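Notes, p. 3: input format for complexes.
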Amino acid sequence: MSIVILGAYGQLGTALEATAYREVISLPRQQADLAQTTDVCKVLDSLNPEIVINCAAYNQVDQAQVDLETAKAINTDAPGILAEWCDRRDAVFVHFSTDYVFGGDLSRRTPYTEQDPPAPLSIYGETKLAGECAIQAASRKYFILRTCGLYGARRSTGKGNFVETMLKLAETRDELNVVDDQECTPTSATDLARWTWALIETSRYGLYHATNSGSTTWCRMAREIVRLTHQSTIVRPITSEEFGAAAPRPHYSVLDCSQLEEVIQIPILSWQTALESYLTQR
Ligand SMILES: NC(=O)c1ccc[n+]([C@@H]2O[C@H](COP(=O)([O-])OP(=O)(O)OC[C@H]3O[C@@H](n4cnc5c(N)ncnc54)[C@H](OP(=O)(O)O)[C@@H]3O)[C@@H](O)[C@H]2O)c1
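Output follows (282 residues plus NAP):
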């Protein structure tokens, strides 16, 4: 069975290749640019995979607010076209989405299930949600996994991740101001990769929530990073408003992952355990 990974040199693509139990064909942006879907389909024609795993995305949440066209092309149009390609070939399409499809319900304080109606706040969230819809309309054999705050090793230079950013800042600063009013569940790319392989095995197609368990804020996460790496940096809480990012983020976007856990029969680790494991293995 041949498996192609698109966007393969990012965090998740790197983790999927590292945890694969079968041979995979890893295609980075240079070999399959989702801005050129006709070319990507030609590459797929020549490889004829039975499973296509799409890890490529336009992930610059703030930049997407002013670059809607590119965000839509990569996050919405390309996944729809790739899902259609897979459906024509009876291949399985695997795709990743985000907790940022939620957030519009300002009073929400319980984890979102797959049945909850999405309400994105940002252009990034809107384009990812539209990507989910395009896949669902185009294909029957799809897996969509919504995740949050991924951290992992990567082969491309791309944007870093929250953990690496905090580690770098803590090296040079005595104090850090970190947002404390966004409750979510940052997730290990390695764990997500393992769940993805297990899910593919089940053939139980559909939409899944896929994060580590529990929840935290970026401020509490930063304090845990500082604690686990024995640094003395003081982490102070600030509001999203004080931080002033261009794109609005959900104040609460914790995902209920019980459906995934039930289907793959693998216990999902807490965000603290996953973080500790990442920090000891990096
Ligand atoms: N990272 C998070 O915090 C997070 C949170 C929620 C959901 N997700 C979703 O999880 C999935 C994997 O994310 P990740 O953390 O692995 O992201 P990542 O590390 O940024 O990797 C994404 C990869 O996509 C590639 N890419 C970007 N534009 C492309 C294009 N036009 N054609 C082909 N490849 C392109 C990038 O290539 P370059 O390196 O060359 O730019 C990068 O290697 C994505 O669907 C993302 O939306 C991520």
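Residues 7, 9-12, 29, 32-35, 55-59, 74, 96, 98, 147-150, 154, 156, 158 surround NAP (CB under 6 Å).
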